[in-house]
Amino acid sequence: IHSSPLAPQNISTIMNAATKKTKAAAKRADRGVPFDEMRRLMQVYGSIKCLRKRQTPGGAENTKIDSVKRKFYRWFPDLEERFEKDEEGFYRPKFGHEFEMRFREDMRTKDGEILTKKRARCRKQRHGGINAVKAASTDAKQAFT
Predict the structure, then answer these.
(1) Which of 60-69, 84-93, 127-136 has the highest mean pLDDT?
(2) How many angstroms separate the CA atoms of 64 and 6, rounded?
(3) Cα–Cα distances in Å, from 131 out to 33, 122, 123, 144?
(4) Is the CA virtual torsion 69, 77, 48, 120 positive or negative?
(5) What are the two backbone dihedrals, phi and then psi, of residue 49, each rounded to the nearest 5 degrees?
(6) What is d(CA 73, CA 64) in angstroms, rounded to the nearest whole number?
(7) Beta strand segments in the chain, E
(8) pLDDT for 51-70, tens place per residue?
(9) Closest C-alpha to 70, from 104, 38, 40, 23
(10) Are 62 and 56 in contact (CB under 8 A)?
C-alpha cells in the first residue's frame, strides 16, 4: 500500500531534478570564458559589490580555480548582456570601458551604503541603541563615585 520510490510519479520527479541540475551545469559550461580572461576582467573591472574586509589566505596565486570561477560569475552575473567577445577572444564592455568602470563604482558605492545601514541596524539591535549605551555609561560613572 506504500508507494515505491521507483513508482512512475517518483521517477518523473527524480528525472526532472536531475535534468535541471544538468541544464544549469551545461549553461555555466557553455559560457566558455577562459580562466586567464576571467582573471583579467576581475582585475580590470572589479566587483559590483563593495569589497568586504575578508582576504584570501595565502594570497591570490594560491586561490583554487573553481573558487575564482565562482567569484567571477558572482562579479559578472550579466556578462552576456554587458560584454561582447571580440575577434581576439577578449571580452569588451558593450557600452565602453569608462561607462563600465563608472557603473561598477556606482554599484559598489550603493552596496556600501546599504551594508553600512545594515551594520548600524544590527549593532543597534544587539546593543540596544544609543540610549542603552548612555545609560550603561551613566551607571558605570555612578558605580565609581
Answers:
(1) 84-93
(2) 39
(3) 53, 15, 13, 20
(4) negative
(5) -105, 155
(6) 15
(7) 83-85, 91-93
(8) 777 665 556 566 789 999 99
(9) 38
(10) yes
